[in-house]
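1st attempt posting a full record on here, be nice pls
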Amino acid sequence: MTVTARRAREIAGRFASVRALVVGDVMLDEFTIGRVDRISPEAPVPVVAFDRAEHRLGGAANVAHNVRALGAAVDVVGVVGDDRAAVTLRGALDRAGVGHALETAADRPTTRKVRVVTTRNQQVARIDYESDRDIAEPVTSRVIAEIGARLGAASVVVVSDYAKGVITGPVMQFLARETTARGLPLVVDPKIPHLALYAGATLVTPNHHEAEAATGMRIRDVEDARAAARALRARVGCASVLITWGEHGMWVLEGTRAAPGAEAVITGEAHLPAVAREVADVTGAGDTVVASAALALAAGASLAEAAVVANHAAGIAVAHFGPTAVSAADLLASFHSPA
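the predicted structure (as tokens):
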């Protein structure tokens, strides 16, 4: 499957008319950056001389940032703690132009990943501040209410599940029911322990490690990828599957949702080679994939076309260090074919 530069412009030209709703585990990525000139005399670890600190949007917040950078309107619904990280996260979302409804749960911290990194972008250590317990009542009810208040304006719903407590049975049941009733695409970036929650989704986008873990099948070639995608689709009960496969590209399986009393049908399968780029860091690449694929679907692209768009967007994202929001201009520039 190929997408010409002209067709890419047609799809991207509709992004401004799309409004996405992102639901999931918002995060704050913090980078403590410094120079390493020596090893500590206290232990065999590098001594990092502090230079600067940076904050970036992570998790579902990064998905929403990617959607906004591509030119669409977006709201993100999630949960934060009653802490300074929540203030920083809300401020970063405001500056990015992302609408947000972040419910506060006093019994958990805002998910924050602190990476100690050298000035040459070598990661020395990571410290995670998080809770992976499911959100409890009344936070769950407030999250569902915030989702319901925004569904009417949404063109597509994206679930960004990092297994940090927001994506629960009640939340997914509400999303599946309401998106089906409204005819909205429901696109899920999954976590393996939650596979049973995603029944009825339009598209599920695991990486190949997740697909292997979910199916017990090794993916070594395209035939393996085809078999794993089919097995995953059957296990989850979703319509379509997009497996991201690192330097090997992607495998896309397109299908229909099963109507009552009917069998779900597979309508197409394809292997997409990776867009050749130098890989600097894969952090956040899955966020870019799910954001760009969902946005392309909402803009009228077929699943195969959306997968190609996502493939190009991922190629741009991995060329940068840390979570990166890909712009529409950069995306279109990656389609080298003349008009």
